[in-house]
Amino acid sequence: MSIKTFLLPDLGEGLTEAELVRWMVAAGDVVAVDQPIAEVETAKSLVEIPCPFEGVVSTLHGDAGQMMLVDEPFISVNTGGEDAAVPAGEESERAQSYREEERAGTQVPAEDDAESDEGSGNVLIGYGTSSAQRKTSRRRKPRSGVASAAVQAPAEAVRVINPLVRKLARDNALDITTVKGTGPEGLILRTDVEAALSADAVQPEPATPAAPMPTPAASASASVAVPVAQAGEADAKTGLPVASSQVLSGVRKTIANAMSTSRREIPEATVWVDVDVTKLLKLRSKIKESDGQAPSVMALVARFAVAGLQRFPELNSRIDVEADGGLRHTLFEGVNLGFAAQTDRGLVVPNVRDAHKLNAKELSAEFARLASVAREGKAGVADLSGSTFTINNYGVFNVDGSAAIINYPEAAILGLGRIVEKPWVVNGKIKVRSICEMTLSFDHRVCDGGTAAGFMRYVADAMTDPKAALASL
């Protein structure tokens, strides 16, 4: 028989891990090429992984809920035939990757390493990149000193299949040659490195001269490790029973990191205004009566916002930090319009590419399509990245306003509150009008308050008198 092991492929945009949600096959099942075999949750979306081989499932290299790493064994399939009959160019994905990692630890790859295996170069879910690309991504330049000498030594390579395991050891100054592997044929796993680091941490330190006693202030500022309590146990800080405790992963981890980065990197300010949208709602009702359907309110506001960005392009931009610490301000021609969508997996931001080319009806259709795809967990990386400006309709949660956090690395986010009837002064008389609170959080580095206020006033005026605004678009 011939066993081929498929490695978890490159899932795009630098993602290195994914949570295994469920297997769609079991050991012993017959699988066909391109048949979906599992669902994994990345930091971006829920992805179905297809099988690149045809045969009988031999081994599933993971359980539901487990974090799986890119370029590690994912599934093994018995493709039939004899091992001896397998051509050299069609070896197991696992064996190929393993040998590449071994060579990376003992010799410097030739710069002009010719490859007969040519691929499309596309990162295709279920297939990864070509063999040549995988080899290129694993090349490492030798470091000076002992590391450089070790590269030229003919000694047996350290058995490490995953570059992330090597990095974990390197970041913690652990000599990986001293680690005993518990995997097949002595393969060093992540757990082996973590165990070695834990063992080093409890080793007694050599005696040193007594240090001065710390001052009370120093003692108070020192970091104290708090034991992690499990469900039902008492929390060390509060004394309260713990309902649940888990490390953030997947979408929740991505959201947490993005929010922290935005608050840390962007000096944001917020402006807001109450808008009379009575005429906007009447216009939408007339469109629905005549056409049978009408754009959503958010789509109409988005059309005005896109037009506003053409007049105030600073808000459709990005600030990047240069290598020397300088700041680069990039403005865009055109708008990729992101919109916040609440899903069972957390808040995600799909984006409508080239939103400036779409009318209100087309924007409404794209909002509905992308929201549906996102809630089903099937949005691709391209659907969830690349936006240049975001709109957030938090009115669906029945709240009036919110100072939203900017979707990093964008420069601004527009927020819409709920529409409620309020007494409003119109031409000197009090009338009942439909009022919506609109907010804009913006990066104060890209513009001053006058620009932000000008954009807000343009959008608010268009919402108040939509016929006049649409006539000029």
From TrEMBL:
Residues 160-197 form the Peripheral subunit-binding (PSBD) domain. Its EC number is 2.3.1.-. Residues 3-78 form the Lipoyl-binding domain. Coiled coil: none annotated. The keyword Magnesium does not apply. Residues 80-152 are annotated as: Disordered. InterPro entries: 2-oxoacid_DH_actylTfrase (IPR001078), 2-oxoacid_DH_E2_comp (IPR050743), Biotin_lipoyl (IPR000089), CAT-like_dom_sf (IPR023213), E3-bd_dom_sf (IPR036625), PSBD (IPR004167), Single_hybrid_motif (IPR011053). Residues 91-104 have a biased composition (Basic and acidic residues). The keyword Transferase applies. Keywords: Acyltransferase, Lipoyl, Pyruvate, Transferase. CDD domains: lipoyl_domain. It comes from the Bacteria. Belongs to the 2-oxoacid dehydrogenase family. PANTHER family: DIHYDROLIPOAMIDE ACETYLTRANSFERASE COMPONENT OF PYRUVATE DEHYDROGENASE COMPLEX, LIPOAMIDE ACYLTRANSFERASE COMPONENT OF BRANCHED-CHAIN ALPHA-KETO ACID DEHYDROGENASE COMPLEX, MITOCHONDRIAL. This is Dihydrolipoamide acetyltransferase component of pyruvate dehydrogenase complex. It comes from Glutamicibacter mysorens.
